[in-house]
Amino acid sequence: MELRQLRYFLVVAEELHFGRAAARLHMAQPPLSQAIRRLETDLGVELLHRTTRRVGLTDAGRFLVQRARAILADVEGAGHEVRRVAAGAVGHLAIGCVGSATYSLLPSLSRHLAVELPGVDFSFRGEMLAPDQIEALRSGEIDLALLRPPVADLSLTVTRLRRDRLVVALPAAHPLAQRRQVRIADLRQAALIVHSADRRSVMYDVVVGLFRDAGLDPRIRHQVGETSTLITLVAGELGVAVVPEPVTALALDGVVYRPLIRPAVTVDLALAHRADRSEPHLARTITLIRGLTGAR
Questions:
Q1: Domain residue ranges of the chain, discontinuous segments joined by +
Q2: Which residues does 52 contact at the CB level (< 8 Å), separation at least 6?
Q3: DSSP 131-142
Q4: Model's pTM, two decimal places?
Q5: CA distance 255 to 261
Q6: What pLDDT score was predicted for residue 81?
Q7: Which domain of life is it from (predicted)?
Q8: Which of 54, 184, 235, 247 pairs as cysteine with 254 (C-beta 3.0–4.6 A)?
Q9: Which region, left, alpha or beta, applies to residue 21 given φ > 0 means left and ψ of -120 to 50 means alpha?
C-alpha cells in the first residue's frame, strides 16, 4: 500500500464519484480506477461498491477512510517537522557561560533566542569557569560555551566574539574609589579577591600575570569560584578585584568600578563548540550570538 494510493482512495471516498475525483486529482479516470483496483488487490478486500449510477463505501472502505486521513496527516506533519529541523528551527541546546557573560550577555541573548528560535529548547548554565566548560563540551553536557581563551583542545572550534577591557572593582569607601582610573601599581598594597587557582581560572592567570609583569607580588586574600561571590566580597570591603568590564552589569551597593590603565589590558570572550557538531539549530544559534556580540 502506497501513500499515493491512499491519497487517490481518499479523494474517491470523499467524492463518491470517479469522474469528479479524477478531475480533482488532475488525472484521467481510467488510471484512477486502476489505482483503486490495485489497492483493493494489495489489501485483499473490496473498498468500494460500484454500480453504473453510484459509488459507495464498504465497511472496510469506511474504516480505511479514517486510517488514511490519520496516516496522511502524520506524514504531512512529519514532513513539516523534518523541514523545520533542516532549517534549524527545532532542537535542544545547552549553553554554558563564564561569569561576566552570565550578567552582561545572557539576559539579552535569552530574549533574542526566544524571539528568533522559538522552537529550540534552550537551557543555560551560568558562572562556569573555562576548564569546566571545556569538560562539559567534551561530555555533551553543554553544546555551546561562552568562555575566556586560551583553549588548547583541538576537538573544539573556538571563535572570538569580542575583547573586553579590564576594570577594578573597589569598595565604595576605598581611597582609590575617588580616582577616575587605576593602575596596577596603585594596587601593590591592596588585598586582592581573585577567581580560584585550584579551578584553573583564566582570570586568575591574567590578574597574577599583570602584577608580575609590573614587578609586583599580588597580595591575594580570597579565592572564589563565582563572579557574583567575588563582587559580593568587594562590597563587603574584604578586598579589591580586577575583572572584565562586562562584570559592571552586576551592580551592588558598596561597589564602584574604575578603568584599569597602564597597561590597558583586554581579555577575549569566545564561543566554543565541538568541531564534530554541525546541526542546523546549532549553526543558527552561533550566527545569532555572533551578530549579537558584533563578531565578524
A1: 3-86, 91-161+269-293, 165-266
A2: none
A3: HHHHHHHHHTS-
A4: 0.70
A5: 19
A6: 61
A7: Bacteria
A8: 235
A9: alpha
Amino acid in the structure at residue 227:
T
Report the C-alpha gap between 99 and 120 in whole angstroms: 24
The dotted CATH code for 165-266 is 3.40.190.10
Contact present, 246 and 75 (Cβ < 8 Å): no
Question: CB within 8 A of 56, min separation 6: which ones?
Answer: 16, 48, 49
Q: What is the largest CA-CA distance in the chain?
A: 105
**H-type helices in the chain, by residue range?**
3-15, 18-25, 29-43, 59-86, 99-104, 106-116, 130-139, 202-213, 227-235, 280-293
Instruction: Look at residue 18 and give its three-state secondary structure.
Output: helix
- Which triple of cell numbers denotes residue 161? 566574539
Does the domain spanning 3-86 belong to CATH 1.10.10.10? yes
Q: Give tens-digit pLDDT for 136-194.
A: 999 999 999 999 999 989 999 999 999 999 999 999 999 999 999 999 999 999 999 99
Q: Do domains 3-86 and 91-161+269-293 have the same CATH topology?
A: no
Q: Which three cell numbers stand for residue 220?
A: 591575594
pLDDT averaged per 10 residues, the chain (length 296): 81 86 88 87 88 83 85 72 61 92 89 88 91 94 95 94 95 95 95 89 92 94 93 96 94 94 88 93 91 83
Cell 480505511 belongs to 64
**29-43 vs 3-15: helix axis angle to the nearest 10?**
110
Beta carbons within 8 Å of 115's beta carbon, 6+ residues apart: none
Question: Which pLDDT value is given to residue 185?
Answer: 94
Q: Does domain 91-161+269-293 have CATH number 3.40.190.10?
A: yes
